[in-house]
Structure to design on (213 residues):
C-alpha cells in the first residue's frame, strides 16, 4: 500500500512530467533565477496557498508564511525574507494576506491556553486590545472574528511600515504595501485598501532619519 507521504512524491513526478509536456524548457527557464514582483506574507493555513489562489506560477511570488500572517519586528526569519525581497529581488509590492476563519486569530480571541503558540498569538491579542472598543461593540461572534482578521492585517501592514527596510524603499518610491483578506467560503480576495505607502501615515516616533539612497 502506498504511504501517504509517497503520494506527494508521486504527485511531484506527475506534476513535473505535466510541466515538461507543456513546455520542454520550463525547468531550464526557472533554474536560471527568479525575478518575482511580489512578496507575500500569508498565514501558514494549508487552505491559503499563495500561488494557487492568485492564479500565478512558480517564480512569480516570494513567499513568507506564519501563523496568522504576523509581522513581528524581532522575527529574524521575516526580516531576512523582507530584506532580501526588497533589497535584492526588488519586489514592487509586499502583500499581507490574512483570511477569514483564521484559526490563529480566533484562538487569540479566547482565553484558551494554546501552549507554546500563546507567545505568538500574543501579537494578535495586542491588536485586539488596541481595537477593543470597536470589537467589543460587535455582538455577533463571527462578525467580530472577521473584523479582527481585517484589523490584524491592517496592523501588520503598519508594522511593515515601521521597518527601515520598507521606509527606505518608500523613500526610493519603488514599493507598495497592501493588506488583503482571503475569503475561505468563496475563494475571493478582498483588498482592504490600507493606504500606507507614505511615511507620513506613520506615527512620527516610528520614522527613521536616514539619507535616501
Ligand atoms: Co490563518
Amino acid at each position: 500500500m502506498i504511504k501517504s507521504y509517497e503520494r506527494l512524491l508521486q504527485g511531484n513526478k506527475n506534476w513535473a512530467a505535466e510541466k515538461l509536456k507543456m513546455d520542454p524548457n520550463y525547468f531550464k527557464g526557472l533554474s536560471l533565477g527568479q525575478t518575482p514582483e511580489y512578496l507575500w506574507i500569508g498565514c501558514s493555513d494549508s487552505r491559503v496557498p499563495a500561488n494557487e489562489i492568485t492564479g500565478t506560477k512558480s517564480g512569480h511570488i516570494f513567499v513568507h508564511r506564519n501563523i496568522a500572517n504576523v509581522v513581528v519586528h524581532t522575527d529574524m526569519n521575516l526580516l531576512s525574507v523582507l530584506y532580501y525581497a526588497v533589497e535584492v529581488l526588488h519586489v514592487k509590492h509586499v502583500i499581507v494576506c490574512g483570511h477569514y476563519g483564521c484559526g490563529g486569530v480566533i484562538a487569540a480571541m479566547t482565553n484558551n491556553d494554546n501552549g507554546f503558540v500563546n507567545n505568538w498569538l500574543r501579537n494578535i491579542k495586542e491588536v485586539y486590545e488596541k481595537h477593543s472598543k470597536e470589537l467589543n461593540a460587535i455582538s455577533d461572534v463571527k462578525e467580530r472574528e472577521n473584523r479582527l482578521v481585517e484589523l490584524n492585517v491592517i496592523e501588520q501592514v503598519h508594522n511593515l511600515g515601521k521597518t527601515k527596510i520598507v521606509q527606505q524603499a518608500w523613500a526610493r518610491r519603488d514599493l507598495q504595501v497592501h493588506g488583503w483578506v482571503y475569503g475561505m467560503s468563496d475563494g475571493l480576495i478582498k483588498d482592504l485598501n490600507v493606504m500606507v505607502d507614505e511615511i507620513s501615515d506613520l506615527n512620527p516616533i516610528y520614522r527613521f532619519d536616514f539619507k535616501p539612497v
